[in-house]
Amino acid sequence: MVGMIVLVVVGALIIGVLILWFFGERWYPLRGSTWRFLREGGLGRLLNGSALHAYAYGRWTNQYIDVLINRIYPGLDAQGRQRWADHYHGKVLTQEHARAIITLNQDIPLQDLEQIIPYPVARNIVLKGPPDVAVYECGCRHARANHCEPTQVCMIIGQPFVDFVLEHNPQSSRRLSQAEALALLDAEHERGHVHSAWFKDVCLDRFYVICNCCKCCCGGIEAMTKYGMQMMASSGYVAQVDELLCAACGTCEESCPFGAVEVEDTAVVDWETCMGCGVCVGQCPNEAMRLIRDERKGEPLDVWVLAGLEHSEFLAGLP
Question: Which of 40, 179, 264, 280 could form a disulfide bond with 252, CB atoms 3.0-4.6 angstroms apart?
Fold first, then answer.
């Protein structure tokens, strides 16, 4: 009798797992993009569970992000916050550097960005130029009751990530041409949103997406400003005020996603807090803000340098 009960339970579990798997694969035994991701990750990621983690994240991103920022982050202690930041983090990009990723026309072989991404893991990059790009619904915006528009602003970069998102979430993602991707970056910059490159350990320990983050919805910005989690690294730049041009209108203070600007008689930038995103530069009506390179803020994510290109060669390739 006991043996029969065990068989029934095991059988029900197997059937449940198979149904869930076929549902995840949209009623295919195995999508091509799933196979390529698993093959690239290797046996080790299957055995330690990170491949399953990555699958859930890529297949049900909105649900994953919702639970993360509304359930998990608020309950973390200091050690837990550090652990999450070490394994899942972003690098702030200037508008120029974000555009450079899209227009890259050279391959970047697998590289460990130890000097650029100041975290112990998930800091690799590998790209084929020009990279494949798909736009995907923003999980952070969908996790908010009153979110920003538009919501389809997350830019998946490179393989096998682009094909995985397109195959598994065809109703909420689409492939972008280079011109469309650049137009999206420019539109988000004009809205006062932050470009950031994200890295995650279960996503093959490497860069896979450019997020266009708004301060009211972004889980990464909230993690930093509300919970003190160092989830984002500086662009390598810092904002500087031209006091002669500054009208003390307060636009920069209102628009800064990290709360790094205060305005009294003139705008004042807090060096420690400034992430060098350039939002204030784009929003200032008097052109009184600019970004300057500051080595104390770390190394920028410059893909033309990683690809062995001179800056002049990169600029010549921009539309």
Answer: 280
CA atoms in the 13 A half-sphere facing the CB of 198: 23
Give the pLDDT of residue 46: 87
Q: Which of 184, 212, 227, 173 is nearest to 58 (CA)?
A: 173
Residue type present at position 316: A
DSSP type of residue 172: S
Q: How many angstroms separate the CA atoms of 21 and 14, rounded?
A: 10
Positive or negative, the CA dihedral 101, 234, 257, 232 is: positive
One-character DSSP codes across 195-263:
EEEEEETTTTTEEEEEEEE-TTT-HHHHHHHHH----EE--SEEEEE-TTT----SHHHHH-TT--EEE
pTM of the model: 0.91
What is the distance between the alpha carbons of residues 155 and 58, in angstroms, rounded to a whole number? 13
- Roughly what angle, to the nearest 10 degrees, separates helices 78-87 and 219-227? 150
Q: What is the rounded distance in angstroms from the CA atom of residue 233 to the CA atom of residue 256?
A: 16
Q: Give domain limits for the chain.
A: 28-233+301-317, 237-297
pLDDT in tens, 51-75: 999 999 999 999 999 999 999 999 9
Share of the chain above pLDDT 90, in %: 81
Domain 237-297 top-level CATH class: alpha beta
